[in-house]
Amino acid sequence: MDLSTLRSQFPTLAQSNDGYPLCYLDTAATSQKPQQVIDAMNHYYHHDNANVHRAAHQLSARATSQYEAVRDKLRQFINASQREEIIFTHGTTESINTVANGLTAQIKQGSLILIDSAAHHANIVPWQELAKRTGAIIKPIPLTQDCRLDIDAFEALLQQKPAIVALCHVSNALGTLNPVKELVSKAKQAGAITLVDGAQAIAHMSVDVQSIDCDFYVFSGHKMYGPTGVGVLYGRFDLLDSLSPLMTGGEMIKTVSFESTEFNQLPNRLEAGTPPIAEVIGLGAAIDFIQALPTAQIHAKERELLNYLQDALENLGDVVLYGAHKDNVGAVAFNLADEHHQDVGILLDQQGIAVRCGHHCAMPLMQSLSLKGCCRASIGVYTSKADIDRFIAAMASVKELLL
Ligand SMILES: Cc1ncc(COP(=O)(O)O)c(C=O)c1O
Asked: Block means of pLDDT (10 residues each) for the chain, length 403 residues?
């Protein structure tokens, strides 16, 4: 499939703002959605709308089988060993909260929790709350000068036998890629429970949770061409089964009396209440969309495009790049000299270019870079070289205006 055919599947891309065709470079915040995802959700609401798991009627049976089929798709998509290891949540944030809350009884006063210094707030704050509840101690895993995770410092921290190691697969702010398989292996040798935040990886690379060998892997549907409001928590069965549920109520029980409740088995035990049914079905369509593409070719093309973007920004002059490496994934972080990132973003927007500006939900990372914030341009399957060229031309005009 050529790029223009691929792009034509994304209705939002075919728009102009103030006479400028949209150049969408904010996929890391949320990806655009292909028509087949929108159609799948519409189809459910038009034809099959019913609650899952509950009723004897045909609509509910159809809704349930579509919902559960997505669990099977996801099992295969990330190579989990069994379907019960896939829990539907509302997003990466809820997935991490489910783990951090669920481990409360297993964490003791003084237990050590190591967190990637490049982590998104969603992979920091739930651990801080866990530490507050238990008396555990949080330590950040430092980065090197060039914004990679510092492996020597990590190994030194592992000597202290952490209980939990929380990593990102790809940094949302910088696009830097962690060698998660190697990091998880070291963490596990030290006896830690490992969680990998794959929110920024899942759309850009093949993820095999058994090969990474992490205990938990989490991501959001909306960053992988699927809808908002649905996410995934993968967990190794025995550990997942040991989590106390974050939410209790309907669906997650086997029997209830006023004296006591017996919880259901996985996966229902961790999916209390009516789940985001249409969104799960939309996520299934997003997986179909991704799997119909020539994956290796697409990933190679995205890397080439990102490198082209990094080089072009650098060649503009007066642009500072942060943690820009050739193996980065999906995003590039930058500032234009000392100009405020927000000013740059607004001026780009006036030419139809959508980038992200701010702290990118990674305030500790920004502090370590002595930044208040920065701009981030991020790409997806639909990004073209022409998009990058337009962005660079717009940056040149912003530079001329501001410097
Ligand atoms: C690396 C990373 N982790 C977690 C999140 C939170 O995802 P959500 O808001 O979908 O829960 C994001 C979203 O930007 C992210 O990029």
From this structure: 94 95 98 98 97 90 97 98 98 98 98 98 98 98 98 98 98 98 98 98 98 98 98 98 97 96 97 98 98 96 98 98 98 98 98 97 96 97 98 98 97
Q: How much of the chain is in helix, strand and coil states, percent to nearest 5? A: 45, 20, 40
Count the residues in the chain.
403
pLDDT of residue 55: 78
Apex 216 CA angle, 40 and 92, nearest 5 = 45
Query: Residue by residue, what is the 3-state secondary structure of 156-193?
Result: HHHCCCCCEEEEECECCCCCCECCHHHHHHHHHHCCCE
Ligand 1 in contact with 200 (CB < 6 A)? yes
Q: What is the pLDDT of residue 314?
A: 97
Q: What's the pLDDT score for residue 54?
A: 77
Catalytic positions, written as ranges: 361
Q: Quote the pLDDT of residue 1.
A: 74
Question: Does ligand 1 come within 6 angstroms of the Cβ of 64?
Answer: no
Establish whether residue 203 lines the binding site of ligand 1, counting it when its CB lies within 6 angstroms of any ligand atom.
Answer: no
The verdict on the CB of residue 122 being under 6 Å from ligand 1 is yes
Q: 230-251 burial, b if ≥16 CB within 10 A, otherwise e?
A: bbbbbbbeebbeebebbeeeeb
Ligand 1 midpoint to CA 172 (Å): 8
- Alpha-carbon distance 263 to 270, whole Å? 9
Q: Of all atoms in ligand 1, which is nearest to the CA of residue 29?
A: 14
SS3 116: strand
- CA 10/CA 6 separation, integer angstroms: 8
